[in-house]
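Dear colleague,

As promised, here are the two records you asked about, laid out in our usual form so they can be pasted straight into your sheet.

NAME FIELD: protein one
SEQUENCE, THEN STRUCTURE:
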Amino acid sequence: MLNNLTECEEGDGGPNSQGDAASKESSPFINSSTSDVEKSQQYDGKNMALFEEEMDTSPMVSSLLSSLANYSNLTQGSKEHEEAENNEEARKKTVQAPRMGTIMGVYLPCLQNILGVILFLRMTWLVGAGGVLGTFLIVFMCCSTTMLTAISMSAIATNGVVPAGGSYYMISRSLGPEFGGAVGICFYLGTTFAGAMYILGCIEILLIYIVPVAAIFKMEGLEGAEAEAALLNNMRVYGTIVLSFMCIVVFVGVKYVNKLALVFLACVVLSILAVYAGVIKTSFDPPDFPVCVLGNRTLTSKGFDICAKTIERGNATVTTKLWRLFCDSEFLNATCDEYFTNNNVTQIQGIPGVTSGILAENLFSAFMEKNSFLEKRGIPAVLDPDAPITNSNQYVLADITSFFTLLVGIYFPSVTGIMAGSNRSGDLQDAQKSIPVGTILAIATTSFIYMSSVVLFGACVDGVVLRDKFGEGVNGNLVIGTLAWPSPWVIVFGSFFSTCGAGLQSLTGAPRLLQAIARDGIIPFLRVFGHGKANGEPTWALLLTGCICEIGILIASLDAVAPILSMFFLMCYMFVNLACALQTLLRTPNWRPRFKFYHWALSLLGMSLCLTLMFLCSWYYAIVAMVIAGCIYKYIEFCGAEKEWGDGIRGISLSAARYALMRLEEAPPHTKNWRPQILVLTSLDGEQNLEQPRLLSLTSQLKAGKGLTIVGACVEGTFLKNQPEAQKADQSLRKLMEVEKVKGFSQVVISCNLRDATSHLIQAGGLGGLRHNAVLVSFPKNWKQVEEHHRCRNFIEVVRETTAASLALLVPKNISAYPSNGERFTEGHIDVWWIVHDGGMLMLLPFLLRQHKVWRKCKMRIFTVAQMDDNSIQMKKDLMTFLYHLRLDAEVEVVEMHDSDISAYTYEKTLVMEQRSHLLKEMHLTKNEREREIQSITDVSRGSIRRKNPSNLHAQRSITEESVAGGGEEKPEEEVQLIQGKNATPTPTSPTSPTSPTPAAMSPGQEVQMTWTDETEKINNPAAVYPEGVKDMFNMKPEWENLNQSNVRRMHHAQKLNEVIVKKSQEAKLVLLNMPGPPRNRTGEETFLQNNQTKPMENILYQNYSFFADIQVMIFIGFGCLLAFFRRYGFGGMVFNFLTATFAIQWAILFQGFFQFYHDGKIHLGVMNLINAEFACAVVLISFGAVLGKTSPVQLLVMAMLEIPVFAITEWAVLKYLKINDAGGSILIHLFACYFGLGVTFVLYRPSLNEGHPKEATSYQSDLLSVMGTLFLWVFWPSFNSALTLKGDDQHRAVLHTFIGLSASTITAFALSTILSKNGKISMADVQNVTLAGGVTVGASVDMMISPGAAYALGIMGCIACMLGYKYLSPFLARRLRIQDQCGIHNLHGLTGLISSLAGICAILLASEETYGPSLYQTFSYRAPKEGDPQLEELQKLIPDLEAGLGRSAQEQALFQLAAVFGTIAASAVGGFLTGAILKLPYLASPTDENCFDDELFFDVPQEHNQQDVWSHVLKDTCKTDVE
């Protein structure tokens, strides 16, 4: 220990070392920030020498008692705001001890929060609607719920130090961050909506009872929905004003709110005392509050002064104001309302008093429908049911439909507020004593008030007054105010200030709660709300709280807002009870509450009551609240809450895990429950990072989150020295597992030898019955190289050990080429080569892979090999039956392996293998010499094979891979075992178990065939013993007849099988096949791995290069020459085409690559990428034709740079979401390019060019050059239209239809040119452009069965449209629509593209199985049946390669085609407008009108060009003179 300590002090722990840079907060000990010098001075002579060396990590208890006694569990979310303002000053400040006791700190705050707006505004109505018994039941249920919750909360609050933060901290620290965050947000939302409810109550009191004239939206004369809407709008306007004012007050300073808290509390207490005083007064002197009743309907008190129809005045009977309300005149013979005429007017006493016996009448409920009349019980009324209802605005009507559950939802907010004491726990003198006593006492007090109020209201007030929510029948007075003494205004003003205070308290508490949640960091997107002002005030949280509170204000109805906050509070209370019950039942050692009067049964009862009340209040609000909480829970879980608070959920997990592991040990697993439990063996680089991360991608896809996964890695060294490296490697594994979404465990083993460490992982991985049954290890890379030979040996040892342990072995080859979890295969196959029976493992792997979204669209194909004596037909039937019983859906094919002569290549390969093996056995060389000789043999052998059979080899891609092992010499004993000398004895191993399948997964074209040697080879060549004989061995001819025939046969079968696999599975996404077991004798290790190479000529390059070359000619020669038709702009036409095309292709490779060929963080390049990029380039060059001669090269490059992204996004969106048929690109290429170019030229409009330009002319040479471009385009257009069609018949049809269409348009162009010409001559402009129209018009339907006649007709139609467009439409566009289409792209590409799109839609609508047969669903792949459709299975029997489609009908596909046409035109036009606006910027070197169509502006033009131009003018003048 002393030596180790000295090394640490001199090394990592020296005075100049930073150690592990642990911060003060991360230290597990209090006062751990003192320096080493201070510690040594502190410990000298004061500590027991026995523990002197451990003093840095284990300080003496005596020195920590003071700190432990004053321990404060202040978490991240509850730090003092002053610390955030100035950390330096905060450390110097002395924290004053909390001063508040039980009464001031808990009892009174709880009392103020519980007694509130519902008591004053809705309690009397609740009693009237629900009856005394029903309301008492509601109050009792709600109060019982809060009492049980308070008991649970008291237990949690007294279990250790309670931090500030209330229920959020209690629940989160008891149930974990997921539940804590979910419930914390619910509590926050409840508190926020409570603020809205209090503000609405405040406005209701203000506008109805205090200042009714202040209403902005007047309600006089309105009735029904109009009056209700006016009231709600008033509530919204004033509520928003009051909310804004309160937010400003809270923002300015909380101290003002706290100073007014006692004033608001005094208002509450005085109001309640006034109510009780009024109740007592009614027993001997009831107040005079008459209520006027017509029949049994209660009348509103406004509009009349005397409750009578007529009165006697003198000797005459005079009608009253009430009469005039119901009659059309004041005379006695007036026509009156029928109900008014048939019923008498009665005046009853609204508050008869507590001794009046009215209690009996109010015992039972009197629920009402909305807009129903408020009727007095016991008074008869004459009512004609058929008579229409009139004068309804004179009666007191019910504003909402009332029922029992509604009353529960409205009332429950009146019992919330029990958390007020726990929220102030940081300010209490003794929180563990004050919280239980104060909270329970407050609940008991308020419960008594509420219950007594129910009884007293029912005993004192008449039912019609109780049910009169807004006091319309008692002169607009607050109903509870009519009962108060000495004046109703005591209650009115008291309740007004009480609701104001409660609203301010809510707006003060809610932002702080949100700030505490945000500072905990468990909900990432809320972290911004953890910041505030310099003093820590939660500014951003206050802003969000105000916005959410405004939602409640906009609802505007107190009765509608109350159930919302009831849901959130009940959710919070439910989890408080759950937390207490969970901690009690788990009996965790840390659960030691000081409050002893709790029980898990009471907590469960409280939780059940909360859940019941949630659904009683509003079942849909309850579901919404649960969904919100569930979403927050899953979000926190998804983001990976890294907080560890020792919560109960983790305790449950531990208990459940222990129980499950014990159950697994009781019996062996059944076959039905078998699934691959995988141990992934990974290799690390020098930085302890994973070398092959795709192993984890494959694991994730194979497991889909189910079952056991252990990711193991090995570190070479000793545990004491290399533990930091192991920890770093473990962190790296965990991080990558999280990225790849691998659900499992990481395990890093340290051993002095990597092979032993791997063996330890295989033997000791897992726990109890939860152990791995399969091992996943990557195939060793570069195993033939001498420096990587240890990888080969380690791999063989893994094969041996997994075989001996009866474990399945999965070996993926070329793992870096495997898809990532973000990729999606939309088609393809997973091929299974089932060669030997492995218990069904090989069948299970593709099924498991297809459960993952990467492989979900891939089909499964199973190949099996039949020998000469096998019945192939019967084998196929048996295999299909076997798959049927396995319930697997797969194609089946039996491959016959015929015996054939063994090729010379096979003998050569076997000879090289045996030469290598024998040399390693027989030569007595040193290690370095042996490695050099092995390399030389390898080089010579490869050279021999390369010379004799060059056609069978191709350059194989090698992927550099760093060695797993570190430095260090291996033991001589290991060398003897692995590379046997002539005196060594072979060490036998266990044979391969038939129950341990060992499949290998590999990508196509890189298959591996395993061969082995099972007996000791004897070579009687004495020259091999002597080093000087080595030269003769290298130069000898292969003795094929002396080779081991067993090895020759194996090599032969390996070659034949490899050829068949490459042929059949060329296009497969994944190939699975059986891997033979390891050699039984170690003498076969050197020949265990042999790599069979594939044929180079099978590369896809040779299928597509001809199309690529043809399109190259079109792009660079065809377009270039075609655009050189201007006499003085030939350079610009060809050279700018060359420049723009080169840039556009490179730019398109990037953008199209990102959208279509982006995998594994890379853009994968191939010939198809280049073809697609050239199509995009063609789009740019077509658009270029619209602005030819009028733009600078800079403008052209900018145009290409902007057009390519717009095209790539449009192409991606149309192909991905609309999924159309457009083989020839009529929609995506021609229409897009046309309208993009027209959009650009519209913005770049030059008015002076409308009448022509002097240089806008052609010459004999320029027209000839342009015709050459036309010919190139004409000849290669079939390749353009057929490059991306399906190989086979579709591509054949595309070539034929394109040629026929071009031929038709050419003949028609010559005919029309002479007809439309005034002098009957052929126009070169027509030859250059119109002849190509047929290639465009057949584009959309080029691969469909439209018949040659239809193709010919389309060519003629396109030619006519194009010709007429050049003659009539182009001048019209230039004059009328400001579109100067320089090359007429709208005629050649726009009009013909529209015709082609229409023809394609017609062809789709006419396509049927009668015409196409089953190939209909190949040509129109999206019309193929969906996955799982029985029709698809029938079609796949006829066409094995047919993929599942979308099941579209012809009409649906036609609609998608139409949508693509309009969408493409819109996207291209908008893109063209924007691009034109950018090109119009002055600093892009746009040529002036005079310099348009002239090469001299941008090129160094030869002098003879100008002279020739001058002589042409001279000749013209001479000709004119001769004519004259």
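NAME FIELD: protein two
SEQUENCE, THEN STRUCTURE:
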Amino acid sequence: MAAERGVRRLLSTSSFWLYCLLLLGRRAPGAAAARSGSSPQSPGASIRTFTPFYFLVEPVDTLSVRGSSVILNCSAYSEPSPKIEWKKDGTFLNLVSDDRRQLLPDGSLFISNVVHSKHNKPDEGYYQCVATVESLGTIVSRTAKLTVAGLPRFTSQPEPSSVYAGNNAILNCEVNADLVPFVRWEQNRQPLLLDDRVIKLPSGMLVISNATEGDGGLYRCIVESGGPPKYSDEVELKVLPDPEVTSDLVFLKQPSPLVRVIGQDVVLPCVASGLPTPTIKWMKNEEVLDTESSERLVLLAGGSLEISDVTEDDAGTYFCIADNGNETIEAQAEFTVQAQPEFLKQPTNIYAHESMDIVFECEVTGKPTPTVKWVKNGDMVIPSDYFKIVKEHNLQVLGLVKSDEGFYQCIAENDVGNAQAGAQLIILEHAPATTGPLPSAPRDVVASLVSTRFIKLTWRTPASDPHGDNLTYSVFYTKEGIARERVENTSRPGEMQVTIQNLMPATVYIFRVMAQNKHGSGESSAPLRVETQPEVQLPGPAPNLRAYAASPTSITVTWETPVSGNGEIQNYKLYYMEKGTDKEQDVDVSSLSYTINGLKKYTEYSFRVVAYNKHGPGVSTPDVAVRTLSDVPSAAPQNLSLEVRNSKSIMIHWQPPAPATQNGQITGYKIRYRKASRKSDVTETLVSGTQLSQLIEGLDRGTEYNFRVAALTINGTGPATDWLSAETFESDLDETRVPEVPSSLHVRPLVTSIVVSWTPPENQNIVVRGYAIGYGIGSPHAQTIKVDYKQRYYTIENLDPSSHYVITLKAFNNVGEGIPLYESAVTRPHTVPDPTPMMPPVGVQASILSHDTIRITWADNSLPKHQKITDSRYYTVRWKTNIPANTKYKNANATTLSYLVTGLKPNTLYEFSVMVTKGRRSSTWSMTAHGTTFELVPTSPPKDVTVVSKEGKPKTIIVNWQPPSEANGKITGYIIYYSTDVNAEIHDWVIEPVVGNRLTHQIQELTLDTPYYFKIQARNSKGMGPMSEAVQFRTPKGSNSPHGSPTSPLDSNMLLVIIVSVGVITIVVVVIIAVFCTRRTTSHQKKKRAACKSVNGSHKYKGNSKDVKPPDLWIHHERLELKPIDKSPDPNPIMTDTPIPRNSQDITPVDNSMDSNIHQRRNSYRGHESEDSMSTLAGRRGMRPKMMMPFDSQPPQPVISAHPIHSLDNPHHHFHSSSLASPARSHLYHPGSPWPIGTSMSLSDRANSTESVRNTPSTDTMPASSSQTCCTDHQDPEGATSSSYLASSQEEDSGQSLPTAHVRPSHPLKSFAVPAIPPPGPPTYDPALPSTPLLSQQALNHHIHSVKTASIGTLGRSRPPMPVVVPSAPEVQETTRMLEDSESSYEPDELTKEMAHLEGLMKDLNAITTA
């Protein structure tokens, strides 16, 4: 038979391939075309037939005992004969050297002396037969499980018991499930014979029904599984005489839930005991089972139910009902039927050409639902870009290559078993071209449109055929570096463009185009290399999204990892929504599948999945819809009513259960009724699911009946209604004559209808079957309608307006119609309905209230002018944001002309629109309004913080990071904290501010071979965000340069020159200081004159002494330079409070009108800088001063000289220890002057710098505070509390030269009007004391200016406010002259004249200012 079947299959397949070949040739001429230059072949050379190759016998699941022998059958058919091998648990068995396992000639596996112990189970497992034909391929059989029964173990043993004669008894003997077939019983040490009265249940339990005296004795059960038998305890069963008294009815054994496979036999145990002896009957889903007439249902001894050859219809709930006349008890159990996988559609053999795409179809069924996997030549097919599982079970192979030939098998598997079906794939050679000219290569192949996932190619006709109307084209393409090529054909002749879909982003593809005419394929174009566009860094859609119902209340959703994940996928969000609603729910999932429980039964849901990576949500998948499984109804039918028709019939009416409780399609209704006097005699009637009434006939006269109705689905019967009673008539109503006239008739005319109502005839003893309504214009006989006898009103539709109708009503029965009752009515005139549709709201405005709240307001033109709502209209507001693109609208209803939308995201653009609804009418959506929520401080720290060492500079590190995920606004800067102690208080960490959105920063002068810890904090316009986690970095080991920074080795000559130069400079500086000190001690007058010179000029520059004429204040006010008269009590105050930088808006511009000499000097100064000037960690930690800044309500007076320093755009900055780390900068304008008087610097003055500003202790002599005029100490109380930045905040020009004032915190400001004698003691500051006025008391004609101070944020420590007044730098030439000679001074007479002149100029200046 097997050979005959193979011959038939061979004949059928050989005739089928020709049809496939022709079909493929028509569908894909480009794919079937031969490569250019290939040698022609005869038609017979490319013909190959499918080879029959299949299993005749496959192994099946087997149960064995240890020490026995087992044969696993396997036989395969093929020409030539296949080679048979065996796998156990996925690994090939080496049968050559195995003395217990051997391969039989037909391919079966023989295992002798099965080995099985507690710790050694070499033979138990899953076996698979593998057949191979060298020239064809490999196929695998289904998997068979070999189970070896273990050692006997009793889970329950018999116990001594007694039974009354005629009653039932049970004796337990439960062993492990594998050994149940090996259990037998003994009575009095003799084998027990089983019959219809004494049976053994599948569990091993012994049941004795209708016990007799002979059943008494000693019982034990024995397990014989190949080894020595194992005996249970021996117990005595006593049979007692019938006491002739009643006893309670109890279950000795109740049914329990069972699972069986289709075709197996099952026994539902049920044994009861009691006096009188009970009888057992069974019901399934409230349907009584007839065990007497059924061939498959047998009632065993004691009452157990045996079902042979189980089918899927046998599944359900079974009730065991025990009744002994006195009482009734029942027990129930669920019986589940499973089915092995079966193929509804098997894969078929396929012919194909290279580069084509094919699909093997495979459709399976089973319970539970089988899973499907594919095997090619015995190896598992792993899904990839070219092997894909589509439509749940089908295998798609893209871009065929020759190596894809072979046998493909679809293997279906569930909990019950597995099955396989296979097909062969043959790759045909390209058909040779016929005689005739072939087209040349297409010209000018270009990619006219390149996207992330598709490319559009265009070309021109071949030169050999300029018109090309009859040419078709094939586009071959592949990934660069991949040998597998795919093909896409044009859809019609003459078309010269193709769009290639489903490509990967940022991937290089190679394209070539080939033309075909009636003779064959021509030459191929030159390869075209095209790269798709890169996709946004968000994940792509999750492929192969599938959803299937796992139960009536749960759905399992599975998907695969996105092909374009753009980094590691952090998690997925599964969105689901009940069909017909707009409320979408979501759940976070970390795996590739999720089961949603608690769903509504038999309800359709839609699902979609969005993947998340570190950048946010990706592209959503398309929605997938699936319905939960049906179940039995969870509620009874509604509105059950009974109507007694006559003495022998009752009409039952009902309504279906509520839609939410139907749990499936209602397939019918079960009506159960009984006489009220006999509750056990129940009659059942089934009706269809569309029927909502049933006439019950054949009842007894004058008898009360109880009725109940239950709804049915394919899953079973739902709960029934409560019993409802009705009594039939003693005698029937009179139907020997027609009914009398109805007692009343009323009509109510409308425009196109008339409502007719009536009351029945007064004589209720005559049967009324219904009513006949006649109506017409002028005559009631135009049309007639009959209605049921219960009906009391009816609406006559489709009438003409303003028409006179005559209406008649008659009652009728089986004899005929009764006397009519007449009425007339005139329909109302037709009125034109209001044609005005609902107008959409206008003037929609979005008012931003906070970072998460926007108020939407609008106007309604359909309301009166006062815009008061007096009717029941309401408004619907909807809003969404376009980021991400797959967001859906959210809606809310309002009854006023505004709505407060809350819960929005910070710094996000939303669009809003409004519609109005009134009754059943709704307007269209209004025009959209847009609003962007306010920013919020960042709620997440910067990400991906990394620290690396700079190449060649071991003391310099580079910190890199990424912006925070939840920036909540535009990032305006970062703060880098670092320390060598990770547990130190945060105010003890060193601060490095970074302005702008830069994501990298260099920190220099760190200690070698030292661990540092780094934290980063982001800021926007609203403030600071949280800090990142500390990142540790150890600086590398290396040698320190002489200045603390890595330098290259110097040769000995250069080192000698440097040492000598430093020594000479040191001697010169000492000499100058000595001369200066000597001159200061000569006279008090010289000391006063020297006070007017800049300290910086005395020790920074040298030159010839020249007499400097006092400058004109109006023109050269910035030349004034006065020395301080007293010194600060603390020459080097150590501040521990650190300024915290503000945003980039706090940066103010500086004057750009500097002479080239200043730039040259700055460049010269910069030339002497080095990385050595960067501070060490210890230095920085001690130099974080709290800074107070002046704010003048009136233009300030020039009271301090400026010392020019290098620009902040230089990579390195150098400050004296008493100078500010980063003082805030502001312009102080002099009246009438077109340029700023002075500037100061802030931490934010680093927008264009590449290194941070740090306090570096200077080795130079500390200059005194800039010259100030003498005055009485006075402090403005308002200045003591001011803590804001300068108002004019603009961006900084990085190319400017910035003058800097050196200020000591405790130094008082002095007036420059008249030189004064120093006060007797150093002044001290107290925030509560008045501040010093800018002008002296002698200058009473001038305005008194108060100095406001601003405290730039400290880290929890307070310092006295420090007034700072910073003037502009002098002009270049004058500054040079003043700095050339530190000893230049005025004579007393000259100074007196100049001071008088200066006082006059100040008066003029004050007059101009007040004017």
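A couple of things worth noting about protein two: Residues 248 and 1069 are 123 Å apart (CA to CA). The two ends are 125 Å apart (CA to CA).

Best,
R.
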